[in-house]
Each structure stands twice: as C-alpha cells, then as structure tokens.
Design brief:
The chain is an alpha+beta fold. It has 8 helices and 22 strands. Helix 4 crosses helix 5. Bound molecules: adenosine-5'-triphosphate. One of its GO terms (molecular function) is ATP binding.
Amino acid sequence: MCSDAVISVEGVSKHYPVYDRPHHRLLEVLSGGRLRYGREFAALEGVSFSVAAGETVGIIGRNGSGKSTLLQMVCGTLSPTSGSIRIKGSVAALLELGAGFNPEFSGMENIRLNAAILGLSQAQVNERLDRILAFADIGDFVHQPVKTYSSGMFVRLAFAVVAHVDADVLVIDEALSVGDAFFTQKCMRFLRGFRDQGGTLLFVSHDSGAVVGLCDRAIWLDKGRLRAEGSAKAVTEQYLHSKYAGEDDAVGAMPAAVSADEPVAAEEAALVVGGGALAIPDEGAGQAFGAGGATLTRVTLQDEGGRPILVTEGGERAVLRIEARLGEALEQPIFGFYVKDRLGQVVFGENTAGHPDQIVRTGMPGETLATEFRFRMPHLQAGDYVITAAVGEGDQDAHRIHHWIHDALAFRSQSVVLHGLLALPTAVRMCRVEPVDA
Ligand SMILES: Nc1ncnc2c1ncn2[C@@H]1O[C@H](COP(=O)(O)OP(=O)(O)OP(=O)(O)O)[C@@H](O)[C@H]1O
C-alpha cells in the first residue's frame, strides 16, 4: 500500500449470512446461535487497493458484484467482516437514493442538515445556499418533504449539497444514471472541476464511457473479488470484453448503436498496424471477441484514389472497407464501425442495419463479404484515433456479434479544432439587424 494513499483498502471482506427459508433465520436466533441454518455469502472477498490524493478511480462490475458494498465501507456506513479501510481527509458521499436524507423534512431542511453533517457551519450554508439551490434547480419543490420527490429530484438535491461542501474525497454511486442529460452534464462538469482542483474521487457507474471520460484508473469487481485494476481505458475494455464475449454469449451492441455502455479502446492496440492498412487478427486477449461464425479479414481506410488515410486534415472523401470470411451461414449479416478518440470515447460510427436496401441478405459458409462505408472525414481535434470494426448478424435490436476488433486501425488527425471534439465546416455571416440612424 502506498503511504501517501488517501484511501487504503486492505484485504477487505464482507460476509452476510444467507438463509434458504426466511424462518431459518428466526430458528437460528431462537437456538441462541447453537443451530446453524444459514450459510456465509461473500459480498466482497479479500479486496485491496489504494487511491492517491488527486486520483479519480472508477469502480465497475456487474449487478451484485459488490460495488455499493465497497463504497458503503469506504464511507463508514458499513463495517467490513475482515480487513481494514483507512481514509485521510473528509469524505462526502452520494450513495444509494435515500441515504442521508430525512424523508419527512423538506428539501431545504435536508440541505441544512446534510451540509452540517458534512462539516459546513450555518454561516457557510447561508453563504452557499443560492448556489446549492441553483445547482439542484428543483424550484419550489425544495419546500416540500423529500418523500414526495421523484428519484431525479432527489439526486439533484443530494448532488447539489455534495458539490458545495469542502470534501477532500468524493464518493459517488451511480448518481448520474438517474438525472436527465442536462443534469448529468452539469454533474460531469462539476466532477471534472473537482478532479482538476486536486480532489480525490471514487466513482461507481454502469456507464463505462463516463468512467473512461472521468477516471484515471478503474477497478473491476467480479463476484466480490478484485478482478482487474489499471488504466480506466484498459480495465473497462477487459470488463466489456468479458461481458459481451463470455458471459453473454457475444450478444452486445453493434458498433454505431451508440449507447452509454459501449466498448472502449484497449491500452495497447496489438492489431493496429500503422493506420490505413489492413489488420488480420490472431485473436489477442482483450483486443477481439465474438461468436466466431464470421472472421474479419481486412479493414482499410482509404481515400478515393485507394491510398491509405494515415493522417487526416478533415474533409477528405474516405472509404472504410470491412471484409469478413463466413464460417457459417449468416442471416442478415451486419457490418459496423466506430471511430474512437484516445480516451476510448466514440466520436462517430455507422452500421449496415439502417441500410436494408444495401445488404446481402444471406451469407454462405466460405464466402467473403465486404462492406464499404463512404463519408467525408470529419475535422477531428488533433490526436490519435482508432477504428473498431465488427461483423454480426440480425438487426440493430437483436443481433449476435461474430467478430469484433476493438482497435482494427489507427489514424491521426491534424485538423485545427478550436472548440470541442470536432469542427463542422460552418458558413458565418454577421449583419446589422437594426442599423443606427446617422
Ligand atoms: N444485507 C445484505 N444481506 C445479504 N446479502 C447482501 C446484503 N447486502 C448486499 N448483499 C449482497 O451482496 C452482493 C453485492 O451487493 P452490492 O449491492 O454491493 O452489489 P453492486 O455491485 O453494487 O450491485 P448493483 O450494480 O446492482 O448496484 C449482492 O449479491 C447482494 O445481494
């Protein structure tokens, strides 16, 4: 464990007794503990990690993997069965909905109560109240008891308080999944600001895009055990690989069905062979997956003259061609791709599911199918990009992925983008609407 760690979790386990029948618990109590009806269930087992000051760490894992249990122990609302947790500095937490708020009190009363618990004096609360109310933006509901709140209003209020106390460590559990898109953006802006000012953040989310966008590191919990720890990008990819390829029989979202929970790039792209060139994979761990009924054999990004696009200024006409050899008959083959930035964030993508007039309806074993996507290269912020390619069968909603390569190709953008991730060719004109009389 590092000595400068703000959060040190050492060999932490949490065990619960579980009973096959509800009355078994009662029988055990009545026997004074002499008879055992329950068995031990390990919600967490031997978890160790540390978080240094100023780090942002995401915790990912399937439902029931122990994420909330871990956060509750970090916040001290639950104690471990064994192991130890040490925290340096003050912690403000946003755990599951309802925690810390009195349902009978109004929003305003809960603001004061919570802010006081989190260390603010009444004078500090008064001074920050307008900002807290503006952040929560729930209007007159702030005077109603919080038991009347929707989950969205509740999380707005809870987040607003947490955002205005002076905590060294913030612990946030799935809060962003409840709010609407604008509120989520507001929270992300706040969390980025908190991180940039040196705050330490422990962040649970099912949205791997948010984890990659916000966190330096990630920890993957699997059935209560720490399965992987490393850069947010690499760990998230391993997690998604296991989720889509293994346990879910390779059913996932095809590229371009952009949801919040999409794959992100691998840390090192073994399949990248210089951009614009083809990539023929030996299935490398974490780089590719799929049910295997078809194999991607060639992925190229070229200009209209057939020259590989290794570097783009933006605006060039491009042809992204994906070829796959079929090992079995496919009904409704689908091809798709994503372009992702260096953080693994999907910038754009497309697949053939939305183009039913352009697809080959049935593919036969031994055949090779090719799909060409033609578009103008966008003006992307300067940097390195990778292309994920996939082949599957079915439609956008129900499909089976046969082969998916996270980082099939790489290219570099040297566009000058002043604002945001990309620039659109934009016509600009300024005029006077009301000329001033001379
Ligand atoms: N009080 C309890 N008694 C028995 N089992 C419990 C108790 N609390 C949690 N568990 C079990 O511990 C495991 C881990 O739960 P936890 O809520 O930490 O998972 P999670 O990763 O946060 O899940 P989710 O993503 O669904 O929120 C689950 O199997 C859960 O059923």
